[in-house]
Specification:
The protein is mainly alpha-helical. It has twelve helices and four strands. The strands form two sheets. It has a two-stranded antiparallel ribbon with strand order 1-2. Strands 3-4 form a two-stranded antiparallel ribbon.
């Protein structure tokens, strides 16, 4: 029979996916991003062009775009409506609530790991080392040079931006709410140095997610079943490895549960905002959103999954 400590931890872990979903929903009414220099608006997913053609960039990459991205990311709170603030409060409130079970979570993780598990998690933690996003960024830049693809070069810059902007937020959080590492104590101080209220390693790992997944691993209407499988597998592997990085920080007694939660949310959401900034807002997300229609008819219950239309850039494009 599950003891009370494990039960409380299970409840906390079940709340996490809800908070992540709320984080995605909290993107209502962002500040309007500067319009791309291209004469025509970018399609909902810029990678969705006829196969064989180098993808075009969502926005011109360069120092000016970096400045626009900075204003978009850090100016967003000024453009939230009431619903946006409510969702933001839900995200932050979930992290704060996790402090109530952080000791139980620590004990549970330490009691259910061993050297074999820790060795495996140490390997996953490679994603949370500074060299990993730098290497991924360099890889996309070299791919962009080799394929003459501004889109790949743009991804390279966005990974670095994600790393830098999320790092600023994590560093600020660690100063404002300075918590001890679990191995040394459980004190929580306000406005103090050497704090650990948001995991830097998890922030680094999560900074890779949105620029790669939302620009290269989203499925296209004309993807084959095999391509869809591998894209979804790759996206799941990235999300999962970042999650294993978070688990490793707890298993090695370096961070509390709220620390890794805030690190993950921070890196992921900054990346999503950067993608939106380069695409002129979040309208492209609405275009991709699946809405299941449920109607009651005389013949019974009708459930319909709308067919997603082809992006404008592909409509009528010749087969390649």
């Amino acid at each position: 029979m599950m003891d009370r400590r494990a039960g409380r931890l299970l409840v906390a872990l079940l709340v996490l996916p809800v908070a992540v979903a709320a984080a995605g929903a909290a993107e209502d009414d962002p500040p309007q991003a500067p319009a791309p220099a291209a004469p025509a608006a970018a399609p909902p997913v810029s990678a969705a062009r006829p196969y064989g053609l180098p993808p075009i960039a969502d926005a011109p990459y360069g120092w000016r775009q970096v400045g626009d991205d900075f204003k978009y990311v850090f100016g967003r709170p000024a453009h939230l409506d009431r619903a946006g603030w409510q969702r933001f409060a839900w995200i932050v409130g979930t992290g704060v609530a996790l402090y109530a079970v952080r000791k139980d979570a620590r004990d549970f993780v330490l009691d259910h790991t061993n050297e074999g598990v820790n060795s495996f998690l140490d390997g996953a933690r490679t994603m949370g080392k500074l060299g990993t996003p730098l290497a991924v960024s360099l890889g996309y830049y070299l791919a962009g040079v080799a394929r003459d693809s501004p889109y790949d070069k743009e991804t390279s810059v966005m990974i670095l931006e994600n790393l830098g902007y999320a790092g600023i937020i994590t560093g600020t959080m660690q100063y404002v709410i300075a918590t001890d590492r679990p191995e040394y104590g459980d004190d929580i101080n306000v406005f103090a140095q050497n704090g650990h209220s948001a995991s830097g390693d998890v922030t680094i790992a999560a900074s890779i997610l949105a620029p790669v997944i939302e620009r290269h691993l989203l499925t296209r209407p004309d993807d084959s079943r095999g391509v869809r499988f591998w894209k979804r597998f790759g996206a799941g592997a990235l999300y999962g490895t970042a999650g294993l990085t978070a688990l490793q920080r707890m298993a090695r007694d370096k961070h509390w549960l709220p620390d890794v939660y805030f690190g993950y949310i921070n890196g992921l959401m900054v990346g999503k905002l950067l993608v939106d900034s380069h695409r002129g807002g979040r309208e492209w997300r609405e275009a991709r959103r699946h809405r299941v229609e449920i109607d009651v008819t005389p013949a019974g219950l009708r459930i319909a999954w709308p067919v997603r239309p082809l992006p404008a850039a592909e409509a009528g494009a010749p087969a390649r």
